[in-house]
Amino acid sequence: MSNRVVQGRMVTPEKLAELVEGEPVLEAESITDADRDCPDCGGDVISVGYMPSVTEFVTGYKCQDCDWSADDRD
Questions:
Q1: CB atoms < 10 A from the CB of 73, how many?
Q2: How far apart are CA 38 and CA 53, in angstroms?
């Protein structure tokens, strides 16, 4: 599935990556279920792989119900 509802709005993979990153990204993969619950509200978490720059690939995680988001950077 390429688009998902996040906080009541339909988002594309690129828009979801932008929500996690805080700025536009170069490219994003399809949105997938993260198989984990949000640590803030217990809602469903989805993930998206994206490239914020030409030399970096990041997996971002976003709750579908609240503002919580994170990525896999160390």
A1: 9
A2: 27
CA distance 31 to 69: 14
Q: Which two tokens stand for residue 40?
A: 């803030």
The mean predicted confidence, pLDDT, of the chain is: 95
Determine the Cα–Cα distance for residues 51 and 5; give it in Å rounded to an integer: 22
User: What pLDDT, on the 0 to 100 scale, is given for residue 26?
Assistant: 97
Top-confidence residue, 51 or 1:
51
In our burial notation (b when 16+ CB lie closer than 10 A, e otherwise), range 20-49 reads bbeeebeebbebeebeeebeeeeebbbbbb
Sign of CA dihedral 54, 57, 43, 66: negative
pLDDT at 10: 97
